[in-house]
Design brief:
Shape: elongated
Number of strands: 8
Helix content: 10-25%
Strand order of the largest sheet: 1-7-4-3
Distance between the termini: 99 Å
Oligomer: single chain
């Protein structure tokens, strides 16, 4: 029985490896496979609002701890020069809040210094390290006119 089984396996192995006759090879044509059908991606709905967000308006809290000067990135006279709108990059509340704004006016320039710190409400709070653009508006004693706006936090 072992000899019969061995002979059958040998016949099967040699038969599988046999080449096709030349006449059969000539008549066989290879048809390339079509690429798989891919559906079109779903159309995305455009956002209702421009993805560029406006700076978050904030007001000084006056009670922050660990207060330090912070540089602003943009200052623009508004309300016919009677106010100045400041923009800067900051952290999230309550971990980073605007404490106060110091304004010093002279005949030639207006020096504005922003002070930020941590809110007392930030105890036992995890602070995410992400930048948020913030803005605040300060009133001037007299209209800005041709005076230069200077960042008081710059060295």
């Amino acid at each position: 029985m072992t000899a019969t089984l061995l002979a059958g396996c040998l016949a099967l192995a040699t038969g599988c490896g046999a080449a096709q006759p030349a006449a059969e090879r000539a008549s066989t044509t290879v048809v390339p496979q079509k690429p798989p059908v891919v559906s079109n991606p779903a159309a995305t709905v455009p956002p209702a609002k421009d993805p560029v967000q406006e700076p978050k308006p904030v007001k000084p809290t006056g009670d922050a701890i660990n207060v330090h000067k912070i540089r602003w990135t943009k200052a623009k006279g508004v309300s016919k020069g009677k106010k100045v709108r400041l923009t800067w990059w900051s952290g999230v509340e309550p971990c980073t809040v605007l404490d106060r704004v110091k304004v010093k006016e002279t005949a030639r320039k207006v020096t504005i210094t922003l002070y930020e710190g941590t809110s007392p409400k930030a105890k036992n709070v995890s602070c995410v390290m992400i930048a948020i653009e913030k803005t605040t508006t300060v009133k001037l004693k007299r209209a800005l006119g041709k005076r230069k706006i200077v960042d008081g936090a710059k060295p």
